Amino acid sequence: MAKYIFVTGGVTSSLGKGIIAASLAKLLQARGLSVTIQKLDPYINVDPGTLNPYEHGECFVTEDGAETDLDLGHYERFLNTYTSQANNVTTGRIYQTVINKERNGDFLGKTVQVVPHITDEIKRRMLLLGKTGKFDIVITEIGGTVGDIESLPFIEAVRQLQWELPEESVMVIHLTLVPYLKAAKELKTKPTQHSVKMLSETGVHPDVLVCRTEEPLGNDIKRKIALFCNVKQEAVIEAMDASTIYEVPLLMLREKLDLICLKKLKITQYGEPNLDKWKVYLDKLKYPKSKVTIGLIGKYIELQDAYKSILESFIHAGSVNEVKVQIVNVHSEFITSENVSEKLDGLDGLLVAPGFGVRGIEGKIVAVQYARESGMPFFGICLGMQMAVIEFARNVLGMPKAHSTEMDAHTPDPVINMMEEQKKIKMMGGTMRLGAYPCEITEGSLAHAIYGETNISERHRHRYEFNSSYLDQFEANGMKATGVNPETGLVEIIELPGHPFFIGVQYHPELKSTVEKPAPLFVGFVGAAKEFNEKSHSIKAGALRDALI
């Protein structure tokens, strides 16, 4: 029978419940246990697919095509295992399921209420993964903060499971904040006390407190928190701010969070944690041999979480190349042909990010042109690839009004067009081309050199595609389609063979990048940026030497 760990949060949002959940899961996995994590989000959207990135960060897509919370990206990056539709549940999906059952007459005329009908459906979802027989432990992160109205049904479901399941089968970890007041020069435990009190008033009592802090807690503070929050002192865990999220598992190992959980759940069969690969990765990450600067051209750059998987993929690729990848955010809305060289000067590579809508499009096209003409390494993802196609059509093929029908429905040269199966769809949520699809790569291409194979599978999230009726013109003028879907013929990868590094992909390689398996395209791109950087420094050094002579 699977064991269940619930992770709740208090005091404030963004404390890092997802990172703590993923770190604990990593430690338990490293001890030989089979672990999965799920996220329960309290918002009424059925999934994050229709949310603006400014609202909730990026939308993470799973192998089976589920549009999910970005925390599932952390789960996959830490555990190196895929999540699925079952790993992310929202209030909207819960209510949708219950209302559909009511319409079908499943409740036999009873009044449908939050308790028991909504909480029963929440509990069913909470236990679903555990009943597959695949996992020893299921960790469930409850989104939001204790005290939020939206979270109450989820907290009530946890209370009921604590009562229904054997005592050794369920436990609660509460993440809270112990702020340091600089004026008083001391840590304050009162926010944690109030947070635990609020949680206890719902009938849920935490077994472990993980305390986010900027300063070490010390035994006196831990003893005080334990006394006033009614937990054992050893169950008060210090969670100091870390230089990187990938350091957190080692910090939690030092605090014995995994051992405390194993003891509470009465699990006795486990090994010593094998984190050798993780430590090697972390060592390369913390002590790079050089640095490269990558320009991230996007329109949601004000919120870092909007491109979370891309930023993490750069961290993974930087470790492989033993370089520190410094990201320079460049807002595409403010790039023009007059200022592009000024804005992009000094970069070692250019990534044009995915997105939707017309805002900032022309700036992305100008940035692509700069990279193509200057020989700077270029990488385009989804919309970024489409911008590379449009730029090439306009400036090489002589089609000045070439565009995507997403931005210009009446363009005379729709080099990017809506997919045929998308044209009849009216509903917005969950209707794009989603999830993993195969791609056949041309032998001898840059993509082939990067992947080392001709058949790959990558995840998608888009409605528009390369218009294959223009393919002959593009290939005749130097832009090659080196990756296609074997079933539909959809162009997945474009390249410029004469360019040092110029590649665009319709899919999202960042979604499959993990610590143990970094995305090959990011590794290759960062490697190309490293070469570009070294070459630039060599040229500058040569010019300086000549000037001195």
Describe this structure in words.
- With 549 residues, this protein is of the alpha/beta class.
- It has 18 helices and 23 strands.
- The strands form five sheets. Strands 13-12-14-15-23-22-21-18-19 form a nine-stranded mixed sheet, sandwiched between helices. Strands 5-2-6-1-7-10-11 form a seven-stranded parallel sheet, sandwiched between helices.
- A hairpin with a 4-residue loop joins strand 8 and strand 9 (186-187).
- Helix 1 runs parallel beside helix 3 (71-79), helix 4 (91-103) packs across helix 5 (114-128) and helix 11 crosses helix 12.
- The radius of gyration is 25 Å and the shape is globular.
- The N and C termini lie far apart (77 Å).
Task: Put the structure in a nutshell.
With 549 residues, this protein is an alpha/beta fold. It is 37% helix and 21% strand. It has 18 helices and 23 strands.
Report the structural category. Answer: alpha/beta
- Give the overall silhouette: globular
Q: Kindly report the oligomeric state of this protein.
A: single chain
Low-confidence stretches: none
Alpha plus pi helix count = 18
Question: Could you give a short account of the major beta sheet?
Answer: 9 strands, mixed
Percent strand: 15-25%
